Amino acid sequence: MMPLELRHYSHADLAEIRQTLIDVHSDAYADQMDDPFHQRFPWFVDHWGGNSGFACIIAWDGSEPAGFAYGAPSIPGREWWREHVSDEPVDPSTFALSELMVRPRWRKTGVADRLHTELLSSRDEALSVLLVDTTHPRVQALYESWKYQKVGERQPFPDSPVYAVMLRGISASDKHLSSAGG
How confident is the model over 10-47, as pLDDT tens digits? Predict the structure, then answer.
């Protein structure tokens, strides 16, 4: 494997990267592609990519995508964490990390950490929120090692898994989350 190159993309680049994201998802979830929820992934790409604040990082191994991370700023007042946190943080601005996906060949090589760090490094929001399937405790533990805290659970679609709602401050000190009461 060559050293990975992390490239930044935005809403304006969606047409260029859309199929790459779909292809990486198909590889990452090859054993689950008969599930209707996973078959709707192109809709999620279009939904998130249609947000003017969409941000995406793709890790490239030469001309081959190894994985990606993407998300967008949450709509103020409609953040996923609100129903689970009793005290609003001083700064509730939130970046919703929608997807972090690494193809099987590159798993357990640090690619996920690099993608996550790179995506959040350019964010101005105070908080990052994401959802993790509650049947994947090792993935939840990985996010906990990155300073996320589980603040609740939600099932956003009738056919989706139940997810742990995980929240963290984007700054290294996580000072924003400490006032969240979660």
Answer: 999 999 999 999 999 999 988 877 877 778 899 999 99
Q: Which two tokens stand for residue 16?
A: 């260029």
24 is written with which tokens? Answer: 């990486």
> Beta strand pairing status for 94-102 and 64-73?
antiparallel
The confidence score (pLDDT) of residue 1 equals: 52
Query: pLDDT above 70 covers what percent of the chain?
Result: 93
Do 57 and 115 touch, CB atoms closer than 8 A? yes
CA 115 and chain centroid, separation: 10
Closest CA to 106 of 60, 69, 144, 63: 60
To the question of pTM greater than 0.85 for the whole model, the response is yes
Q: How many CB atoms lie within 10 A of CB 166?
A: 25
Instruction: CATH number for 5-178: choose from 3.40.50.2020, 3.40.50.1380, 3.40.630.30, 3.30.70.2190.
Output: 3.40.630.30
For tokens 């919703």, the residue is: 96
Pairing of strands 5-10, 94-102: unpaired
User: Domain limits of the chain?
Assistant: 5-178
